[in-house]
Here is the input.
Amino acid sequence: MDRKRNLIGILARHRLGFCQQSEKLQCNAEIRNLGPTLMQLTSISTFHLTPHDQPARALKGTPIKNITRAETDPLNDYLIGNFRHKDGRRAVLINNYRFAYTAWPTVEFDVDPALVTEIDKATGKERPVRDDSPDMPGEFQSRIE
Here is the structure.
């Protein structure tokens, strides 16, 4: 059996490989850059925040106080990981469940936004969290693809 041929069939129909080679390379690079930080995290809990949930209630006990959206944005639908870093800090990972839409949630943390950091997917370095849409109301908007 041709193992390579089967692998290509798994990746995409008609032996075209991954949807876009550039997307595959970008995704692999981001995972490689995030890897050293991810390996220092211990999972505490995970939540599937659905459009029917009340975010403030569902996320109680996590570093996130609330997640809201603009009226024109897709409904909240996120997988949220709650973690403890090896050095004792808390961490969250927000994953968009709606793969067909880019989401722009407003995320409210339970600490001063000046204390919140993020890991840059391009470099793997920690940096102060950036508001992806500073003209929108609310503390912090995050672009989640």
In short: Confidence is low (pLDDT under 50) at residues 1-14. Helices lie at 3-11, 21-38, 55-58.
